[in-house]
Amino acid sequence: MSETLERVSQEIENLRNDMVETLVELIKIPAISPNYGYEGEYDKAQKLLEIIKDWPFDKVEVYNAPDERAKNGVRPNILAYYYGENGEESPRLWILTHLDVVPPGDPSKWTVTEPFKPVVKEGKVYGRGSEDNGQSLVASLYAVRAMMNLGIRPKRTIVLAFVSDEETGSKYGIEWLMKEHPELFKENDLVLVPDGGNEDGTFIEVAEKSILWFRVKVRGKQVHASMPDKGLNAHRVALDYAYHLDKLLHERYSEKDELFDPPESTFEPTMVNGPADSPNIAPGEHEIVFDCRILPKYSIDEILSDAEKLAEEVKVKYSKEIGGEVLPEINVEVIQRLDAPEPTDPNSEIVKLLQTALKELRRKDAKVGGIGGGTFAAYFRKLGIPAVVWATLDEMAHQPNEYAKIDNMVEDAKVMAALALL
């Protein structure tokens, strides 16, 4: 290990308590999307700006994506620059984390603490957003803070990006930034997205599946359950459709690619909704949502076409005229779509740099692969900018009793520093 990297690593160790304190302060502030009825990321962004206001960043910029549903009508995105040894001419390393978190879910399942009342216990920080994405956000901050404290300028300019809306599609986050401010991004940038990984930090994600979320809405005719012939039970139609769609998709798109884990496309029914609130009502409406993670070789358009064709077949099967109207209606509505870009080359500079850093600091060989989840990296890959997803995680994201392991946060900060120094 180089002397400089050793000094920076030791300084990061010295900052361990500060890192824990910062993570605790950030967890206290819910930053949940207006999609779920919350106010968004404004308060958390303000807290972060307050924390770093006296840090010697060379430049801090705030880009507010307008969203009238959010507090003060904006979804904030923060970029903090720490220039490399050649100033603004230095090559650049982006480290991107997200401010938003998912809703806490069933409060009764939080047995260690309440979601937004963080506690430190047995080397872990518990609370919603602690691991996803607070652990990496704080790690990136203190990787830079350590260099600042030592007066060290890295080989590469570090651009810390703290963005909004990752959990619900990035429309007000990285996607908005790339659309409205394309001048921020350069082809020779290197990009780390520390928002996925494994328990020992040996997995580097270079590829993602396509993502498709769609809602199926079925409309029949509500009626008393004792007289089903007088109406059309939307539940029955929807269940029939969902069963056959699930079967069709798994059979038709069944090939595997061992680059990914899991290696096959996945098609998961996840959410259902129907207005019947009594056992003796045959409901007239039913909704079901599918979450699909699709191997890049397959076309999302073809999958949607299959869903539409099956809808027509099921409509014919149950067709019935009621009150001058032919029912059922079955509509397929896309909620989110992200077509997978070309993977990052496993031999690209950012991959090799990360593998070198892990070898230097941990004496471990890291493997490359693909995942089913969607991250910021896909947006950079679409621009032809190589990006990797990596972190050391216990994979507690979105779960009750979510926690960040303090050792992971500290050790990952050292790797982030190494990427800028090596």
Automatic annotation (TrEMBL):
Q: Which GO-annotated molecular functions does the record name?
A: hydrolase activity; metal ion binding; transaminase activity
Which keywords label this protein? Aminotransferase, Cobalt, Hydrolase, Metal-binding, Transferase, Zinc
Checking PANTHER family in the record gives: ACETYLORNITHINE DEACETYLASE, ARGE_DAPE-RELATED DEACYLASE
Record keyword Endoplasmic reticulum present: no
Essential cofactor(s): Zn(2+); Co(2+)
Classification via Pfam families:
M20_dimer, Peptidase_M20
Q: Which family does it belong to?
A: Belongs to the peptidase M20A family.
* Protein known as: Diaminopimelate aminotransferase
Instruction: Report the residue ranges that make up the Peptidase M20 dimerisation domain in this protein.
Output: 206-318
Q: Which organism is it from?
A: Thermococcus piezophilus
